[in-house]
Amino acid sequence: QVQLVESGGDLVQPGGSLRLSCAASGSIFSIYAMAWYRQAPDNPRELVALITASGLTNYADSVKGRFTISRDNVKNTVYLQMNNLKPEDTAVYYCNGDIRTVRSRNYFWGQGTQVTVSS
Questions:
Q1: How far, in Å, are 11, 27, 65, 89, 94 from residue 39 at the CA level?
Q2: Cα separation, 26 vs 24, whole angstroms
Q3: pLDDT in tens, 36-91
Q4: With 90 as the cut, is the pLDDT of residue 14 above it?
Q5: Where are the alpha helices (DSSP H) in 1-119?
Q6: Among 105, 91, 81, 103, which residue's Cα sits nearest to residue 22?
Q7: What is the rounded (10 degree) CA torsion for 16, 23, 99, 43?
Q8: Burial class of residue 82 in the structure, from the number of CB atoms within 10 Å of its CB (0-12 exposed, 13-18 middle, 19+ buried)
């Protein structure tokens, strides 16, 4: 009933930039928060950035000053602008939504998009 579709992942050189997007669709009543997580092979999934319905943002220390999370409420889309990318940013990036449907409030995940930073 709710789908999150991500896009924008690519192979980039260190110091490069990427802009990820995640569009939510379906039976959405309210979106309380949207977030970006990332996961490298054999590593735990970690929170990268979060934005609440009120616009409050939170970032992992490792990306502060380089990444910016934003949203388009009309399109139910969240973005992650990634600048000055580093090899350690390489991971699958997942979109997560804290979303209220008609009957309940749940967390939904996107399929993930690969970001590879390599020289």
A1: 16, 28, 20, 10, 8
A2: 7
A3: 999 999 999 999 999 999 999 999 999 999 999 999 988 999 999 999 999 999 99
A4: yes
A5: none
A6: 81
A7: -40
A8: buried
For residues 3 and 28, what is the distance between their CA atoms, to the nearest angstrom?
A: 10
Structure tokens at 96: 């997560």
Q: What is the DSSP string of 87-114?
A: GGG-EEEEEEEEEE-SS-EEEEE---EE
Please state, in angstroms and rounded to a whole number, the distance separating the CA atoms of residues 28 and 114: 26
Any idea which residue has 């967390």 for tokens? 107
Q: Can you tell me which residue has the tokens 């009309």?
A: 74
